[in-house]
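A quick aside before the break. I want you to see a complete sequence-to-structure record at least once, exactly as it would be stored in a machine-readable document. Don't worry about memorizing anything.
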Amino acid sequence: MNNFHIVVVHFPVVLAVAYGILELIHTLWKKTQYLRFTLWWVSLIGTLAIMIARATGEQVEHIARWEPLQRTLLEFHSTLSGVLLFVFIIALCGYALEMAPLVNPKYTKFLLRIPKIATIKNALTHPTLRVILALLSLVVITIIGGLGGAIAHGCGSDPVTKLACIVSASF
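That is the input. The structure line, written in tokens, reads:
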């Protein structure tokens, strides 16, 4: 299972980086239907991939024996992967509400007459929230990657893992 986590975990990393970059391009510069559709798929597949990576990571966490520093790094790594999952779920919900009229216009029109749903849609599709989610995705995945590297290869393997170890030691 340990090797399976190593294989699975790189897919959400790529999707988190792709989501962050594409979301910034889409929100700040170039709003196109193609980019919106792509972001919907990236957020959907990313959410599923993060769930799978978290599940395989939980298995590794319970199988292996960990040094105290590795345990601290692992807990922080796990917590941040939960934050990343939350970011992707929020993005997915926003894109699902935004793309719904293309799938079923009549039902969506009916749903958006309900004030709470319209308010939620407006909040989840607000450009400021999307920029925050994009930046969070990029920052969190960088830290998660550094922590994963530190867990697998030790704290001295590169500058990012050294920084991850220093940050984790303060928690």
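Two observations worth writing down. The mean pLDDT is 87. Residues 68-103 form the longest helix (36 residues). We'll return to this after the break.
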